[in-house]
Each structure stands twice: as C-alpha cells, then as structure tokens.
Amino acid sequence: MATSGYQLNFNQDFTSISVLDGSDGFRIFSINSCDKVEEIFTSDAEHIILMERLFNTSLVVMVTAEKPHCLQMLHFKKNQKICNCVYPTNILSIRMNRTRLIACLEESIHIHDIRDMKQLYSIENIAPNELGLCSLSLNSHLAFPISSTSGDLRLYNASKLKPGIVIHAHESRLSALNFSPSGQLLATASERGTVIRVFCVKTGQRVQEFRRGVKRCVRIASLVFSVNSQFLCVTSNTETVHIFKIDEKAVMMTLEAEALKAANAAADKQPEKSSPSSANAEASGSEAVSSSPNSGWSDYLSKAVSSYLLPTQVSDVLAQDRAFATAVLAQPGMRHICGLTYVQKDLKVLIASQEGFLYIHEFDAEQGGACKLQAVHDLRGALDGVVELSLSESSDKMSPGSSNKEARGSHNVPTINVTGGKATRTDGTPKTSKPTTSTNASSGAKSKKSTVARCIIENPDPVPDNSYAGILKGHQKADPLTADSAKYRKLCDAIDTPSKLFDERQFPPVAIAARD
C-alpha cells in the first residue's frame, strides 16, 4: 500500500489537502486562494499509510503501517483520540460523507454510522479487490467492483442499506470510479484507460463516453467530477491531464429515451382489454406515438437506435468526445491526483503531485483549451540547503512551518454476499439473542467466505482524573456506557462543521441561524 514519495489527498470539497510523508507523519493544508496555501496542522506520529479528513471538520481517520487492520479516529484540533476500529484484514481504502464511513477491505466492505461508529452493514464475499476500489457519494450511494475479470460493478444504497443495480461498465477490470457531487452520475475507467464512461446512477444507463487516447494503455490515477458536475477531470501516468465536458442535453436525452423505453415496456405488459376499438388502437399505435405533440425528435432517435439504423461500432465512435481542456504536467510518469473546484469564485484545476507539489491551473469554462499554470506550492517538509523549485514566473513559493503538538496516536450485523453480480442478504443474530463478539482479529489472516467478518470498536483509554475530587474518589472500574457516551460526544464535536460557513466553496451548504 505504501508508495515512494509523498501521498497527497484532497478532502471531499477540495478546500484542504493532506500530505503523508512516510515515517514523518502527516500535515494538513488549507487552500484559501491561488496564492495562499496555509498549513493548519502537523503531526510526527507513527508511519501512516492512509488518511482522510471529513470536509473542513476536525475529524481525521488514519491507518498506520504498524496496524494496517486498525482504523484510528482523531480530533486533530484537540489532539484527542476518539476510538479505534479493528478489522479482520488490512484496510485498503476509506470513504466518508456526512452520515456514513466506509472501510474497504480486500474481500469485504464495512458500513458505519459516522455519528457513533456502529457497524450498520457488512458486504461479504465480494470479488478480490486488491486496490480497495470503491466510491461513496454525498447522498450515500456506494459503488464497488464485483468481478476480477471484467468491469462489472454494483451500486448499493448505504443510507437505506439496500443493494442496487449491476452495471457492466467495461470489458476489462475497473481501475477508477467516482460519483458526481449530486450523486446522479458515475464515471468509470478500465485498466486500459483509453475510454471514460459516464452512467446514470438511477437507471444504470450509459449517458456519455469520452476517449482519452488510443495510442497506448495507461493507468488512471484520478477520476474526479467538478464541484458543479459539469466537467470530468482525469489524470494518468502520462504528461497530460484531460478535462471532459458533460453534455447535459445528451444526459437528459438519454434519460428521456430510457424513461420512454420503460413506459413502453410497462404498457406492453398491461392485459389487453376487450373493446371494439382495440384492434384499431393496436394498428395505429406507432403512428399515434409519432404524431403526439410531446414525442419530439428524441422519440425518433430512440426508435432509430432500437431499429439499429447505425452499426454499434459506428454509433460508439460518434458518441466518444475528445477532451474539452488539457493541462500539461511538469513531471510525467508520477502519480497525480486532481480536482476542479472554485477558488475565490473562479474554477481552478488543482493537481497534486507525488513529489510533494500542488499545481493550480487556470480554467476557461466557456472556451476550454490549454490550462495555464498559475501557481505552484511546495507541500514538502523543511529541506535544509535545498532551493525551491521554480516552474514558472507566477509560481508561489510557500515555506512550510510547523508548531503544532504531536498527535499520538462489536456485535453481529446483517451482511450481503455478492457473487457473480447477484446479491443475497443474510440477517445477523435475532434481537432476542445476545450478540457475539469476535476477539481474534489478525492483520495477516484473510476472512473466510463462510464466516462473517466483524469489526471490533475500541474506545480510547480513559484519561486519569488528577483533580482533588478524583483523588478522593480513588480508582474506579471503567464503565462501558460512560466510554460509549464519551466517544459519541467526541465524534459529534469532531464532525461538527465550523461556524465559518459563509465561504461559497463549502459543500454541501449548511444552514446557519441568524445572529443577533
């Protein structure tokens, strides 16, 4: 899981970026403007291999190299550990939104309520997912691959805990997938990396397709929608970042055609009624549809597609769009992650490099074209005797500094078994019986498909009370109810959104009571 160089990761709304520096801990930077990237936290904790921050809150979850099967939750502004979650095998990826936390293992996915970290569901027996590939939308739609040989994926409603549809996205295995901020679209890419496809989450219908290139197969490193869901930004191991434009008219046309197809299918299933005019109605059914004032040209297009007026290969080529805009990287061959977000009310392309730099490019939402490099920020640690890299005259040279303190730092649930694209639900222990807790969680052992992989929630050790009253009371046995309530209070405090929410970059918007 650990890679050479720096590991950089944006939060969900691209207002901050975290930097993992191997054994030197991690740092969090706030992206305030193109010319100002401010370090807000630094830690010299043990070797961290995974880290996620929840929006602009104080909640940080991380995984260390010493305990790759243990998820640690931290209130970083108070330097306070909240709880630990121990899983049967190593944690490969973490996804969060306002209500859910997803821990993805190689053969299982665990769904938690982020308010109290109770495990709500466990999806078992999925296809081997060595990369921990999954995506969680802001409205709690979950997508993950279900095949190790093809690009099949399953949608799952993590809010209602119900399985969704299966989408055959690509012929080869998936390498990247991500939801749009609205949760209505899902973008996917395969291991070949030549074609990017966009699907409707509600119907599973493919609504648009983009071609990144045909010369060579590449590894897609980042696949991200813009904050307004109008563009799709893609980075790979090549020197070019591709930005595609989502055709809203094409999306609406495809959705209307799918709705029309579903309506026609429902009408065909209705029992025939014996009436004198039934034969005439059936004979003139197609003419009535075409002559309807609400049918329009979209109905004609759907008929043309259904009648195979165009060969499949030709129609696929016509549906593939080239990049709307591009940005050229300074160091190709490295891993880059991207984001397309508003910075001071202007759309900017954010590109974070494995070598520890943040590149900010200008973006023209009307014309597209080449994106000009506007600023470069150095997110590396203090390097004595090393001169700042200057990539352009407008590059911003930020000197890192750190003064923060060091951060140190179950029960049966129903499961879903996913095999070959089919999901079967198995309930856990009945309410009348006592829950059983697994006490053996090994980082090297893999979970058997016949058993339920459980997560053990560990509350932090109680802080000794050295006050006068505490000394008089003496040592008391720890109360689990008190520990759970303390964990709940810490979680609520950590995920509480700061009061400064007037910045338009904050997403999703949170209502604020009017102040006197």
TrEMBL record:
Cross-referenced SUPFAM superfamilies: WD40 repeat-like
**Where does the record place its WD repeats?**
167-195
Annotated PROSITE patterns: WD_REPEATS_2 (PS50082)
* Listed Low complexity bias regions: 274-295, 429-439
Question: Which GO terms fall under biological process for this protein?
Answer: autophagy
Q: Pfam families, per this entry?
A: PROPPIN
For this UniProt record, the keywords arranged alphabetically read as follows: Autophagy, Repeat, WD repeat
One cellular component GO annotation, for this chain's record?
A: cytoplasm
What InterPro entries does the database record attribute to this sequence? PROPPIN, WD40/YVTN_repeat-like_dom_sf, WD40_repeat_dom_sf, WD40_rpt
Renumbered residue ranges of the record's region Disordered: 266-295, 392-452
Q: Which family does it belong to?
A: Belongs to the WD repeat PROPPIN family.
Please identify the protein, giving its name as recorded: WD repeat domain phosphoinositide-interacting protein 2 isoform X1
